[in-house]
Design goal:
Elements lengths: L5 H9 E4 L4 E5 L2 E4 L5 H10 L9 E4 L17 H17 L3 E2 L9 H7 L8 E4 L13 E4 L2 H10 L1 E5 L2 E8 L8 H12 L7 E6 L1 H5 L2 H10 L7 E4 L3 H8 L7 H11 L12 E6 L6 E3 L7 E3 L14 H13 L14 E4 L1 H4 L2 H11 L9 E4 L4 H9 L2 H7 L3 E2 L20 E4 L14 E4 L2 H10 L5 H7 L1
Parallel strand pairs: 3-4, 3-6, 4-5, 6-7, 9-10, 9-12, 10-11, 15-16, 15-18, 16-17, 18-19
Antiparallel strand pairs: 1-2, 2-8, 13-14
Catalytic activity: (2R,3S)-3-isopropylmalate = (2S)-2-isopropylmalate
Cofactor: [4Fe-4S] cluster
EC number: 4.2.1.33
């Protein structure tokens, strides 16, 4: 057998049947669902009189529409959203599917909840009606988003008609400098290869800089690469990944544990495996990043300037750049650092984990939110929230003038009651800065949790390295 990539190994081990040269029937180990991509799929099952043959390999989470206001009981006030949540519960009860419901103490964002409870393991294929399912590649699992029609197919068969992707290798060596995080690294990668640079590819990260990252940082890296069009992202599971899973998977014991460890050892690309595309990065050259436009690839280092139009490639890049500057109310050639902000959001499936909250708390400890700024911290799950409170992080944020919220997607997208107003500029740890993403007319600047925390305390986009030097 010729050398295979990790991606090819995962595909081969989950192929039920080859349909043609490009398409296969793929078995899915775990299917995650949320409240907004599942209703039509369940309706299709009812209409055709189909059941769900493997309900235990499907898990549902109410996450996008849930309110995050402080309080023990959460009530979804928006009638259509409340209806979505009720339908999800009814459907899960009918088909015997586990559900993290609105007031479940473990409730949170699906991409935070699943790995923290040991559901994600190396070698799995995990799918969800949400594009950021790529997150699970941090543990050596192939995760990717699917559409509503595909959700119905998976519910009915636990399989998916799947078009095999091309492969890309992104190697990152060197050491990230102080103040530079995985969020900065992935923004820099997207900035270089473009919003369509990984379109049609499943990529594999490797290199000394990747090896040095924590698992939570790797989640960030795999989560956001979908913004370059990637169909999936993978990191070969190492001791860190194995330890992360074993600490959260008590069912893996005795012979099952031994068999799993044996299988996981082979989950890496063979020497000599050929990728369709290769990119190489030097981690030491990455600076803290900030987006200036309305696409994650419209990004610069915090000490750089918004590009002039003649610096952008003629054609689509230049026209979209001009529109983005107009929407973001920024002038070409101006410094991004010092741009005033009115809102800060720390959270999301990209940066709502405990390490992210610790990094932000380290910045705000002993400081206060600047006048005229509203700042929010939304943990990615109930588990993260309790862990942060046990460490006293909630008090750090509250004492600094932040709002300490309940878990959920919150202001990552305007699907709940955490919505920004027209013209409000937000320093955000989320994954997308599209027009209207956080509210009609709202302006989003993507950055790391530390950078967002720095913006909160200064009232403007601030180089975290400048703040660190002042300490």
């Amino acid at each position: 057998m010729p050398p295979r990539t990790l991606y090819r190994k995962l595909i081969d081990s989950h192929t039920v049947a080859s349909l043609d040269e490009q398409n296969i029937l793929l078995f899915c180990d775990l299917h995650l669902m949320n409240e907004y991509t599942s209703p039509q799929a369940f309706a299709g099952l009812y209409e055709e009189g189909r059941g769900v043959p493997m309900p235990g390999q499907n898990v549902a989470v109410v996450s996008h529409i849930i309110p995050t206001h402080p309080g023990k009981i959460r009530v979804i006030a928006d009638p259509p959203s409340a209806l979505q949540a009720r339908y999800l519960k009814k459907n899960c009860d009918t088909f015997g599917i586990p559900l993290f419901d609105t007031n479940d103490p473990l409730q949170g964002i699906e991409h935070v909840v699943a790995p923290e409870h040991g559901m994600i393991r190396p070698g799995m294929v995990v799918i969800c009606g949400d594009s950021h399912t790529t997150t699970y590649g941090a543990l050596g699992a192939l995760g990717f988003g699917i559409g509503t029609t595909e959700v119905e197919h998976v519910l009915a068969t636990q399989t998916l008609v799947y078009r095999v992707a091309r492969t890309m290798h992104i190697r990152v060596d060197g050491q990230l400098a102080r103040g530079v995080t995985a969020k900065d690294l992935v923004l820099a990668i997207i900035g270089r290869i473009g919003a369509r640079g990984a379109l049609g590819y499943v990529l594999e990260y490797s290199g000394s800089a990747i090896d040095a990252l924590s698992i939570e940082a790797r989640f960030t890296l795999c989560n956001m690469i979908v913004e370059a069009g990637a169909r999936g992202a993978l990191i070969a599971p190492d001791d860190k990944a194995v330890d992360y899973v074993l600490r959260r998977a008590p069912d893996l014991a005795g012979p099952h544990r031994a068999a799993a460890l044996q299988a996981w050892r082979d989950l890496r690309s063979d020497e000599g495996a050929v990728f369709d595309a290769v990119h190489v990065f030097d981690a030491s050259m990455i600076a803290p990043q900030v987006t200036w436009g309305t696409s994650p690839d419209q990004v610069i280092a915090v000490d750089q300037h918004v590009p002039r139009l003649d610096q952008l490639e003629e054609g689509a890049a230049r026209s979209s750049g001009a529109r983005a500057m107009e929407y973001a109310r920024l002038a070409a050639g101006t410094a991004i650092e010092g741009t005033p902000i009115q809102h800060v959001f720390i959270g999301s499936c990209t940066n709502g984990r405990i390490e992210d909250l610790r990094a932000a708390a380290d910045v705000v400890r002993g400081r206060h939110v600047a006048p005229g700024v509203r700042a929010m911290v939304v943990p990615g799950s109930g588990t993260v929230k309790r862990a942060a409170e046990a460490e006293g992080l909630d008090r750090v944020f509250i004492d600094a003038g932040f709002e300490w919220r309940n878990a959920g997607c919150s202001m990552c997208l305007a699907m709940n009651d955490d919505v920004l107003g027209d013209g409000v500029r937000c320093a955000s740890t989320t994954n997308r800065n599209f027009e209207g993403r956080q509210g009609r007319g709202a302006i989003t600047h993507l950055m790391s949790p530390a950078m967002a925390a720095a913006a909160a305390t200064t009232g403007c986009i601030t180089d975290i390295r400048r703040l660190e030097r002042a300490q």
